[in-house]
Structure formats: structure tokens, C-alpha cells
Amino acid sequence: MTKVFAAVRAAFLTGILLLLIGVINVNQSLLFMTFLGAFLILHTVESASPHEKVLQATVHGEDESRLTTWIVSVSFITNIVVPILQYRYTSPPQTIGWMSWLGLFAFIAGSALRLWSFRVAGGAFKAQIEVGEKQRLATTGPYAFVRHPSYLGVIIAYAGIAGIFSSSLGLAALLILIIPALVIRLLKEEKILAAHYGDEWQSYTSQTGSMLIPGL
């Protein structure tokens, strides 16, 4: 994907979110302006990443992760669009307070962690649960603290969006759909990685004991 197309795609999605939130609401809220600006920048960077083609790969032939991949793929609707609509059409409107700003920080931090994970993993990052023959094991950067930092980034970012828009539906989707799907995926990944890397994986897990949350 070219950088120009990445920017156009990011601008298009940002425009959709602008319309969903409401132009008037955005004009009256520094929080929403900042959110849309951050979304535009972060999504442009992700779309321009060489890993984007991997993330967009079809998964019709895979057996290990088809359902969980599908669940995560619809998260743009369940964890971004739905929270925005809930905020816009809740009467009376939710008050924007410090929790909303904390949510914005979480969204940016989670998205940045995900992008960092992409960069460090390189070709090891795949939509499918599989390991290539010459694929290296990522152990540096965020992978030195948790074994699945990109999943942690998704959780933090979506929790942040639920906070920005004070969305109980967004939080419920995160707890009921996204987190269980990610946990199922990472448990399957752990088995495949252990079988493929053997002693190297055992050494890595002994040093990085946390699968998803640092310290746990």
C-alpha cells in the first residue's frame, strides 16, 4: 500500500468518524478534535506499514484462528462505531470529564504500543496463527516485557475509546468479544511457538513470564 493511498484511506475513515460524532459536536469539543487528529495520524502510519498487507490477508483457508480473526476484524464496528453512536444518541449526553481525557491517553498509548510491536516483530507479525520456516522470534522492544504486546495495545486502545465516549456498550464488547478472542489466539500461538522454537522459546518465556499483562 502506497503512502498516498494510506493517507487517503486514513482520511476517509476519519471523515466517517467525524460524521458519526457530528461536526457540531467536534467543533465544540477539544477532546473529539484531538481524538480524530490522533486517529488520522495513527491510522495513516499503520496503513503505510509494510505489515498492513499481512493484516489484511484473507484467512479462509486457516483452521487455527478463523473465528477469532473474524471477531477482531469487526471490532471497528463494535468498539469504535458503536461507542460513538451510543454517545451521540444517549439522552441526556454524557458529560466529558477527566475519564474521557484518560480514555484519549489510553487510546493513543495502546495504538502506539501496537505500532511499536509491528515494527519490532517485522515479518514475524501475521494475521494467521502460524510460524514461517525462517521467521525469527521477537524478544526485544515491547516483547521484552510481555509476549503479546500488540494484543495488549488493542485492549488498551479499545478501553480508551470506551472511556472517551463513556460507552458501556464499547466496554461490554471489549470484555465479551475482543478479550476472549485475543486470549484464545494467544494461547494457540503459545503452543505453536513452543513447538517451533523449542529451547529458544523456553528461554524466552523464562525471562518474559507475562503473556499479556506486565507482572502477571
Average pLDDT, to the nearest integer? 85
**Main beta-sheet annotation:** none
Topology order in helix (H) and strand (E) letters: HHHHHHHHHH
CATH class category name of the domain at 62-207 = Mainly Alpha
The proportion of strand residues reads under 5%
* Total count of strands: 0
Low-confidence stretches: 54-63
Helix fraction by DSSP (H/I, runs of at least 4): 55-70%
Counted by DSSP, the helix tally is 10
End-to-end separation in angstroms reads 37 Å
CATH fold category name of the domain at 62-207: Four Helix Bundle (Hemerythrin (Met), subunit A)
Question: Which structural class fits the helix and strand makeup?
Answer: mainly alpha
Provide the gyration radius in Å. Answer: 18 Å
Protein model, in words:
With 216 residues, the protein is mainly α. It has a domain at 62-207: Four Helix Bundle (Hemerythrin (Met), subunit A) (Up-down Bundle). It has 10 helices and no strands. The protein has helices at residues 3-21, 23-27, 30-48, 52-55, 66-73, 75-89, 98-121, 149-164, 168-197, 199-207. The chain is globular.
Short description:
The chain contains ten helices and no strands. By secondary structure, the chain is mostly helical.
